[in-house]
Amino acid sequence: MSTQTSGVDVFDLGSEHEQVVFCNDPATGLKAIIAIHSTALGPALGGTRFYPYASTNDAITDVLNLSRGMSYKAALAGLDLGGGKAVIIGDPATLKNEALLRAYGRFVQSLDGRYYTACDVGTFSEDMDHIARECDYVTGRTVAHGGAGDSSVLTAFGVFQGMRAAAEVVWGTDSLAGRTVGVAGVGKVGRHLVRHLIEDGATVVVTDVHQPSVDAVRDEFPQVTSVESTQALVASELDVYAPCALGGAITDEVVDVLSARIVCGAANNQLAHPGVEKALEDRGILYAPDYCVNSGGLIQVADELEGFSFDRAHHRATGIFDTTRQVFELAKTDGVAPAIAADRLAERRMRDVGRLRGLWLNS
Question: Binding residues for NAD(+), per the UniProt record (predicted)?
Answer without folding.
Answer: 185-190
